[in-house]
Design goal:
528 residues; mainly alpha; hpI Integrase, Chain A; three-stranded antiparallel sheet; 47% helix
Length: 528
């Protein structure tokens, strides 16, 4: 508590020392007071604030190009603090009586815009563009899945942004398909029915979560940063920028189209009569209306996308020719394992992480197809908290790394050594091509030189256009054909085996670092 008398305090000091924090959200009020200090740096004590000072403050805010709504919000906050220090009356029975009267200022006129309603096609476009999101990072769940779940749940429930990001798993009843939650702004308990597409998105987030929050870290993120990501997302989708409250308006408009009167119930707005407040329970009608709402195509089709991709992989794996590949069995004698590496036919290879080695060892020692759930259980037992989708991504990384280590290129082996099993969904087995069994790896270089490879010629021309020298990172960042570092390294190794170039060591810069390897085309290689 400050020793300064309340009448001698500025608005900010009066708020921090005297004004009860339970009445409003303190962070929001501090934000408005800091905005006032930027517009009017000299803040007088509250006893010297009069009509002229408030009018001058309004003119300064309008000159600073603040919107009429922002000006009105700031002025209302000033008057609220002054009324708490003013005389007691019917409107403010808890006023302190420090000021004899409260000054007055005329509020700016606000022209209310037509509520924005997003089209279902726009929501689908944004849903698809979520694949480009890299934030937030969450173990076991990719950022696109989190963003898509947030969009789907915001549309299905029309919850406010603050309530949506404070949502906990204990508030969700998956059996009854509903959310029981107390709105932060109004303090009212409510039940939001959940359609099936919202349940499917939530189930993708629940695997492996231990924090209790559905959208963890989002509640601690500033609004400017969150809306910055959302605006980038809308720009990529090619639509006008929008906010989460626009999704709330869209959902309210859609449910009002289905059944008039349901929008106020879904939004939890104030009832208009005693009957609505104390006697009516419209939960069954609300659930029926929510189920009849039109849904963007992406929302309903998105949760099954990963399963469809894996089914397509199984179909492609079933087309493998038994002439080129040995898919009937696995010779475990070809493989050896240590704590940090593995050996194939007597040649030892290192792997970057121990969980890569554990995945490969589990698949090899099992002999047959390894189901994804079994692989998840094995990794969790070893102390790795990986979810199903996370394991699928890591198996993909292991595939690409094995291709580099075993010297398998796209022109000679279109299927990776660790492949999807053709008769088991979400399962993997080890496939070793027959040519790799019958001949040493070194002999395959001569075979590859004789193969017409359009992709290889295209890569050589691309390197020549960049001066004839590139690193693995240059290929990965600038050539979209090779999205991963392992694929880029494999492509450059294949060019070296074909005699197009060689590795060259680049010394570190003056600032420090380590020497790097750079691929350099040989002089006179113009046959491509």
């Amino acid at each position: 508590m400050s020793d300064t008398p309340p009448a001698e305090m500025t608005l900010a000091e009066f708020f921090e020392s005297v004004y009860p924090k339970r009445m409003r959200h303190p962070d929001g009020i501090r934000y408005k007071l800091r905005m006032l200090e930027r517009v009017q740096p000299t803040q007088p004590p509250i006893k010297d604030i009069d009509d002229a000072w408030l009018s001058d403050l309004r003119e300064r805010m309008e000159a600073a190009d603040l919107s009429p709504r922002s000006v009105k919000t700031a002025l209302v906050q000033c008057l609220t603090l002054l009324r708490h220090a003013g005389p007691r009356n019917r409107g403010f029975p808890g006023a302190l009586g420090i000021l004899p009267e409260v000054p007055y200022v005329e509020m700016p006129r606000i022209v209310r815009k037509r509520p924005r309603r997003l089209s279902l096609d726009d929501l689908s476009r944004v849903y698809v563009e979520c694949k480009t999101m890299k934030w937030p990072s969450r173990k076991g769940v990719a950022p696109p899945i989190i963003w898509r779940a947030a969009l789907a749940l915001a549309y299905a429930t029309a919850m406010r942004r603050g309530d949506l990001f404070q949502l906990r798993w204990e508030s969700i009843d998956f059996e009854q398909r509903q959310i029981e939650f107390c709105a932060t702004k109004t303090g009212k308990d409510g039940v939001w029915p959940l359609p099936q597409y919202a349940i499917d998105h939530l189930l993708q987030l629940r695997d492996g979560d231990t924090t209790g929050y559905v959208f963890r870290r989002w509640a601690l993120t500033t609004s400017s940063r969150l809306y910055g990501y959302l605006h980038e997302l809308s720009d990529r989708a090619g639509i006008e920028r929008f906010g989460f409250h626009d999704i709330r308006r869209t959902a309210a408009s859609e449910i009002e189209r289905v059944q008039p009167g349901m929008a106020a119930i879904l939004l939890q707005h104030s009832p208009r009569s005693v009957t609505e407040r104390y006697y009516l329970d419209c939960s069954p009608e609300l659930r029926e209306a929510v189920e009849k709402m039109r849904v963007p195509v992406g929302f309903s089709a998105g949760p099954g996308m990963y399963e469809r991709v894996e089914i397509d992989k199984q179909k492609q794996a079933a087309r493998v020719s038994p002439i080129d590949y040995d898919v009937t069995g696995l010779d475990r004698s070809d493989w050896e394992f240590s704590d940090i590496a593995f050996a194939f036919r007597g040649r030892w290879f290192p792997l970057s992480t121990k969980w890569h080695l554990l995945i490969l060892r589990t698949i090899v020692e099992n002999g047959g197809p390894v189901e994804r759930d079994s692989l998840v259980a094995t990794l969790n037992a070893a102390g790795y908290e990986f979810g199903p989708i996370d394991v699928t991504r890591r198996v993909g990384k292991l595939r690409r790394r094995l291709r580099v280590l075993l010297g398998i290129s796209d022109d000679f082996d279109p299927m990776p050594p660790v492949r999807d099993h053709s008769q088991h969904a979400q399962a993997w087995t080890v496939c070793v091509p027959k040519w790799l069994r019958s001949a040493p790896i070194e002999k395959t270089a001569a075979i590859r030189r004789d193969l017409p490879d359009a992709q290889q010629r295209k890569l050589v021309n691309w390197i020549r256009s960049r001066g004839g020298a590139v690193t693995v990172n240059d290929v990965r960042k600038n050539n979209w054909t090779y999205r991963h570092g392992d694929e880029a390294e494999l492509a450059l190794r294949s060019l070296i085996r074909a005699g197009f170039g060689e590795w060259q060591t680049v010394p570190p810069s003056r600032k420090g670092g380590r020497p790097r390897l750079r691929f350099v085309l040989r002089d006179g290689d113009t046959s491509t």
